[in-house]
Structures are given as structure tokens and as C-alpha cells.
């Protein structure tokens, strides 16, 4: 019985995630998914970074990171900075346009979540928050025990 409920939960989470992706993609004016947006957020937070560093931090392959960086540069949301002393060292930097796109993405995401959660009562929100916090703690505990 427990396994059946877990599979139902997984299916429900996947349906909600897919719906969020579709709605976000329709609302966002740039042809980007979540991965490039996470790159922009990291660049805003940490400043210019080498692509290999971004790939490692965000868990992307080098090839994926190259594709993401190229897309961001082509859309003028990021730019490549070449090191003056060693032109082989290239960092990706978020542009002003990238900062604006990131803010737009956050606003759309917030709006989508507010729409989802408005159907819940205050008590249901508290319960949901307790469950989410428990799941996050479990993930962190497992990470801290990894080699």
C-alpha cells in the first residue's frame, strides 16, 4: 500500500512540474528553460565564473554548459570575459539584460506558485511546509553522509 501511494505522489509531482514548465515557458519571453535561468542566478549571486565551474556547481555536463552559455550569449543575457593575461581563461558574466530576464523569470515563477497555493487553506499550507522542511532535512542529512 505504501509503495502505491508513493508512486501516486511521484506521478502527482511530475504532473505539477510539467504543468509549471509549460505555463512558465508560455509566459516567459525568452526561449529558455530552468537550466539557463539557474546559470543566470548563479552568475548574479557569485559574479563571473568559468563554464567548468558553473557546470560543477550546478551539476551539468561540460557539453550542456557550453550549450547553455552559447544560448545566453546569443540572447545577450550573458557575455564572455576573456582574461587579459591568458586568453584561454574565459568567464561568463551576466549582463544587465540578463538581470532583467532573471527578475522576470522570478516574477513569473512567484505568480505560478501563488496560483497553485491559493487553493490551500492556512492549515494545509502549514502542513505542506512541515512536510517540505522534513524532506529538505532528509536530503541534507543524506548529503552530509556521502563520501
From TrEMBL:
It holds the Pfam family MarR. InterPro entries: HTH_MarR-typ, WH-like_DNA-bd_sf, WH_DNA-bd_sf. Residues 3-137 form the HTH marR-type domain. Keywords: DNA-binding, Transcription, Transcription regulation. SUPFAM superfamilies: Winged helix' DNA-binding domain. GO terms for molecular function: DNA binding; DNA-binding transcription factor activity. This is MarR family transcriptional regulator. It comes from Oceanobacillus bengalensis.
Amino acid at each position: 500500500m505504501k509503495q502505491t501511494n508513493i508512486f501516486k505522489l511521484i506521478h502527482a509531482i511530475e504532473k505539477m512540474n510539467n504543468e509549471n514548465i509549460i505555463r512558465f515557458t508560455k509566459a516567459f519571453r525568452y526561449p529558455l528553460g530552468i537550466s539557463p535561468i539557474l546559470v543566470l542566478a548563479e552568475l548574479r549571486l557569485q559574479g563571473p565564473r568559468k563554464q567548468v565551474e558553473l557546470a560543477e556547481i550546478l551539476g551539468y555536463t561540460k557539453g550542456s554548459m557550453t550549450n547553455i552559455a552559447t544560448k545566453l550569449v546569443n540572447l545577450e543575457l550573458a557575455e564572455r570575459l576573456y582574461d587579459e593575461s591568458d586568453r584561454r581563461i574565459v568567464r561568463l558574466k551576466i549582463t544587465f539584460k540578463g538581470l532583467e530576464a532573471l527578475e522576470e523569470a522570478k516574477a513569473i515563477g512567484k505568480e505560478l506558485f501563488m496560483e497553485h497555493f491559493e487553493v490551500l487553506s492556512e492549515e494545509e499550507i502549514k502542513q505542506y511546509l512541515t512536510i517540505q522542511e522534513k524532506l529538505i532535512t532528509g536530503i541534507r542529512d543524506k548529503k552530509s553522509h556521502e563520501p
